[in-house]
Amino acid sequence: MRRWNGWGDNTVEYPLPSNGPEFLQKRVGVGAPPQDVSLEAVLASVPNSRLASHPLVNVDPKLRLCHAKGQSLPDWIALRSGRISAFPDGVAHPSSSTQVLDLVHFAEQNDSVVIPYGGGTSVVGHINPVTAEKPVLTINLRRLNQLSKFDEISQLATFGAGISGPELEAQLRALGFTLGHFPQSFELSTLGGWIATRSSGQQSLGYGRIEDLFKGGTLISPAGTLELLPHPASAAGPDLRQMILGSEGRLGIVTEATVRVSRLPEREEFHAIFFPNFDRGQTAVRQIVQARLSLSMLRLSTAVETNTTLALAGHERLIAMLEQLLVLRGVNDQKCMLLIGFTGCEDLVKATRKEAFSIARQHKGVHVGRQFGKQWHKGRFLTPYLRNTLWEQGYALDTLETAVPWSDVDDTIQAIEHALQSTLDPSEGRVHVFTHLSHMYPEGASIYTTYLFRLAQDPDQTLQHWHSFKTAASQAIVNQKGTISHQHGVGVDHAHYLEAEKGSLGTTVLRDVLGRFDPKGIMNPGKLLA
Ligand SMILES: Cc1cc2nc3c(=O)[nH]c(=O)nc-3n(C[C@H](O)[C@H](O)[C@H](O)COP(=O)(O)OP(=O)(O)OC[C@H]3O[C@@H](n4cnc5c(N)ncnc54)[C@H](O)[C@@H]3O)c2cc1C
Known about the structure:
The chain is α+β, with helices and mostly antiparallel strands. It has helices at residues 20-28, 39-44, 61-66, 73-81, 97-109, 165-173, 191-197, 204-207, 210-213, 241-244, 278-290, 303-311, 316-328, 346-362, 371-379, 386-392, 409-421, 459-479, 498-517, and strands at residues 57-58, 90-92, 113-117, 136-140, 147-151, 156-160, 177-178, 214-221, 224-228, 253-260, 262-263, 267-275, 297-301, 336-344, 366-367, 395-405, 431-441, 444-454. A seven-stranded antiparallel β-sheet has the order 15-12-14-13-17-18-16, with helices on both faces. Strands 5-6-10-8-9 form a five-stranded antiparallel β-sheet.
């Protein structure tokens, strides 16, 4: 069963290795978990529903609680402390486009707000009710989870937009195909959520981001239904798919989506290469990606992230042996780990690997084989479970991300890390900050920073600390002219920074478009635009 106040399935645990607690204590101090509120106590605080009755709408308090918050750190603080300011008034699980249409009309006629809900894995407040003024209807799309059309010749597949990552891949795998979209939230997130947030999967270097994969579909909005055909390309004016991508539930509900799929690869391998420092690693990955090699993944960690990953990996003896080997090869304390993925037919993988390794060697990269890559691949959707363990040991963990041109990568990492490191007064606690380049493009890279700090006993104080961290880091991103989000989207947490990126005309146009699709402003208000 899914955890109501944490990540994932409640039968799955991710214990810390034996040296983990000591590592954390040295970095940020001894953790002391605050007392979590019980499920019964939170359920007792769910107010009566204000929604008019409808056969598809369920007003069960537990269902409403389970749709009240996503997965951001403020969401966790609210769920664990029971300080939840707003709940949806009802939740519907439509199983057809006709039912979705009916629910949107119902909400419009009853002056209610609609929140489209996929997997609820948003980390920026996308699916949280924010208004107390009107009844809120959350529409959970998980029952729209079938493959409705498969065109093998064109390699196009049409799915109900509520399909989750594992369901989608299982259905395609049975046909010998894959979408190749693997966000870390794969286990729970949905196709519609990926589209509505412009998501990026871990192998986007090979398969493309969701905006490359989304080819057309159906959007049901209060103003009508928009059908977009999967043309391979078109010069017929601006591409309306781009409006749906990143629309965050504000235009309407995507009920069906056609996506580009690929044959299952003949071969897939992930390797680790260690560089003596971040400069060398960064130059190597830039040259590799600018050589347009056919890779599926590049992920380069800074020295602090590399050390943190190795320290928390367990297998102490194996890691000690690896470190000895690296020292002999001239890779010491400042070592930076690159994970590199090759996906495709045998010959192409072989040729690409040779070329990529040759570039890495020119920058003193030491290839240590496939073990680390294999481990990463095996555990890649399990790592989010570590957040549960950390919380239970008294630690909060949050991430933030941006993307900038290569020439700005170093300064931006420095600015973000410095902003986070200088946020707390030493008397308030310490923070451990580390970064990797998560997605790479010929012209730049996305920067993904993780920070960890001790939970306070008072949830308001933890929230205040988070707020200070988030504000400082977001301001640093804006000052560096990075995008306020490369993959998580805008939601509530980034909405105040959108105008700095899109400009006043840009945000006005966006607001006008939202108003045209949704004249009464019932679709997910308060998200995307402040
Ligand atoms: C542990 C963890 C790891 C993550 N890793 C990644 C990652 O690697 N890459 C990445 O890009 N993101 C990642 N995320 C963020 C999140 O998973 C993505 O934003 C994801 O795309 C959200 O999908 P969802 O189905 O859960 O959408 P939800 O959270 O349910 O909704 C997100 C937004 O999309 C809208 N929406 C959902 N479905 C529809 C629909 N059918 N029609 C219209 N609007 C809709 C909602 O109204 C909301 O505004 C991660 C999150 C977590 C918690």
